Amino acid sequence: MKQTAYLYAMIAVLLWSTVATAFKLALNVITPLALLFWSVLISAGCLWLILWLSGRRSQILPTVRRHGSIILLLGLINPTIYYLVLFAAYDRLPAQVAQPINYTWAIVLAWLAVPVLKQSLTRTDILATALGYFGVVVIASQGEWPWEADSDIVGVLLAIASTFIWAGYWLINTKVRGDAIVFMALSFSVALPMLAMAAWLAEPSTFNVSGMPWLSVAWVGLFEMGITFVLWQMALTRAENVSRVGNLIFISPFVSLMFINYFLGESLHATTFVGLLLILTAVISQQRQKEPV
Fold first, then answer.
1. Which of 76, 135, 193, 199 would bridge with 279, disulfide CB 3.0–4.6 Å?
2. What's the pLDDT tens digit per position in 257-285?
3. CA-to-CA distance for 257 and 268, rounded, in angstroms?
């Protein structure tokens, strides 16, 4: 069981390490909205197939009856708003800048948990926030120090905004009980009509499949939003020590940078690694028990 948990976790980490590259390859050809619509369509199909094959069909209607309104809210937040903002950030920034900033969502989570879950901030939370966002500044410098004024500040702000949306999404998830995969399949399904309407009104070209980068789009749908999430859930449920398995996720950003360098041809800056180490140090330190302020 222990070995199986680590195997599932490592496969999930490897797959998640590829998605920043897939984002950029797709966004070189299509818009963030087009990428989101088609990848969510593929992901929803994948998740429904998993529900069917895993015998979860009986949970669908009771979940809809009990949590219909929360499913609508979850679908609006993730995938709709979250990925629109995230893809917009990737569209404006080098992958090596957007990808590490995404890991600051764990820092944001500690702050949002204060008003939402009535938790207390700790000294470590405050220090981690300062360290983590200093890491963001270092990464955003893209090898230029001090940070050049012509850096894409809008892209950086979008990347930071996505972490607030993601942290908020997980806080809402703490309020509901049920199968995570069922909730994800349903929330992605209710997101599809919203995305289709947005595309029809704002970007009708979304539905022009000619020249669509299907490999990258399918990769995002399957391995960012679908199969990999299921593998990660399987790893955590089989783990003897959830914390040890969970910590494997911190391998992902470094492997991701290797893919970014090889497939996208981005020259990796030393500041990217320094900033990433600062962010991960902040996040890991936050996972330990801390003294209240």
1. 135
2. 999 999 999 999 999 999 999 999 999 98
3. 8
Task: List pLDDT tens digits, range 158-215.
Answer: 999 999 999 999 898 877 888 889 999 999 999 999 999 999 999 999 999 999 999 9
Please say whether the beta carbons of 221 and 40 come within 8 A: yes
| Three-class HEC string of 67-104 | HHHHHHHHHHHHHHHHHHHHHHHHHHCCHHHHHHHHHH
Phi-psi group of 211: left, alpha or beta (phi > 0 → left; psi -120 to 50 → alpha; rest → beta): left
User: Which string of DSSP letters, residue by residue, matches 24-70?
Assistant: HHHHTTS-HHHHHHHHHHHHHHHHHHHHHHTT-HHHHHHHHHHHHHH
**Please, what's the b/e burial string for 72-103 (b: 16 or more CB within 10 A of its CB; e: otherwise)?**
ebbbbbbbbbbbbbbbbbbbbbbbbbbbbbbb
Query: What's the CA gap between 210 and 252, in Å, rounded?
Result: 33
Q: How far apart are CA 45 and CA 188, in angstroms?
A: 9
DSSP string across 117-177: H-PPPBHHHHHHHHHHHHHHHHHHTTT-SSPPTTS-HHHHHHHHHHHHHHHHHHHHHTT--
Helix (H) or strand (E) holding 279: helix 270-286
Would you list the domain boundaries of the chain? 2-93+153-265
CB 269 within 8 A of CB 97: no
Q: What is the pLDDT of residues 104-146, one digit of tens each?
A: 998 999 899 888 888 888 888 899 999 999 999 899 887 676 5
Contact in structure between 35 and 219 (CB atoms under 8 Å): no
The widest CA-to-CA distance across the chain, in whole angstroms, is: 57
User: What percent of the chain clears pLDDT 70, i.e. is strictly above it?
Assistant: 95
Contact 292, 120 (CB under 8 A): yes
